Amino acid sequence: EALKAAEIFRPCLVLDRDRLDSNIALVKERLAPALAVRLVDKSLPCMPLLSHIARALETNRFMTFHPPVTQA
Predict the structure, then answer these.
(1) Residue pair 41/30 in contact by the 8 Å Cβ criterion
(2) Distance (Å, whole) CA 38 – CA 21
(3) Which of 9, 32, 33, 72 is 20 to 30 A away from residue 26, measured at CA?
(4) Are 59 and 39 a contacting pair, CB within 8 Å?
(5) Which pLDDT value is given to residue 44?
(6) What is the pLDDT of residue 70?
(7) Quick check: helix, strand or coil at residue 39?
(8) How far apart are CA 62 and CA 45, in angstroms?
(9) Number of domains forming the structure of the chain
(10) Considering the domain boundaries, does residue 51 fall inside one?
């Protein structure tokens, strides 16, 4: 309904940022300190979102499948 009200009719991502941040915190809490996180962009080629997650997880490791991400 919110998308209709905003007259957004093309496919888009609606994200609960608080829930995302909670999930990121949970990953950080449960991840063994010796392990490095690598973000995979295969299903999420969205640079602003990947950047947010990378900053929160303190990583610059990516597995990428999309030219725009590899060039960023």
Answers:
(1) no
(2) 17
(3) 72
(4) yes
(5) 73
(6) 60
(7) strand
(8) 11
(9) 1
(10) yes
Structural domain includes residue 39: yes
Instruction: Judge whether 3 lies within some domain.
Output: no
Structure tokens at 49: 């979102």
CA angle, 40 then 61 then 66, to 5°: 45
Q: Is residue 1 part of a domain?
A: no
pLDDT per position as a tens digit, 3-62? 999 999 998 888 999 999 999 999 999 988 888 899 988 777 788 999 999 999 999 998
Distance CA 8, CA 3 (A): 5
- Give CA–CA dist 70/59, Å, rounded: 16
Q: Which domain holds residue 19?
A: 13-70
Of 38, 23, 48, nearest in space to 69 by CA: 48
